[in-house]
Design goal:
Length: 109
């Protein structure tokens, strides 16, 4: 199990980008925090496969806390990662299994 970050590294208003080595190479992740609850997804939009960050480590959110893809405006709710508005409505981000141990976040093996 590999440590991704400390929970306090995840800005509740911005999310956190990190990378993890997997069997198919490096995967870039986006981590979203609600209090001490952390969700992680592959940092790839299901619409056209582009990064969800508008700059390295920087993510956009709308006024309702939904993650906004900077390319064509898809909106993702951040509990299950479903696109609720935009060109890939109904599709979902790819979840990544993580574990929070104390104040540390780990990628599950
Ligand atoms: S690549 Fe994300 S909405 Fe098009």
């Amino acid at each position: 199990m590999r440590k991704l970050c400390d929970i306090d590294d995840i800005d509740p208003g911005n999310g956190h980008e990190c990378a993890v080595e997997g069997p198919d190479g490096v995967r870039h992740l986006v981590l979203i925090r609600h209090g001490d609850d952390v969700r992680a997804w592959v940092n790839v939009c299901p619409h056209m496969g582009r990064s969800l960050s508008w700059a390295p480590g920087e993510f956009l959110f709308d006024g309702e806390g939904r993650l906004v893809c900077p390319h064509h405006g898809a909106l993702f709710e951040t509990s299950a990662g479903e696109c609720v508005e935009g060109p890939c409505r109904g599709a979902s981000l790819t979840p990544v299994h993580i574990e929070v141990r104390g104040r540390e976040v780990y990628a599950a093996a």
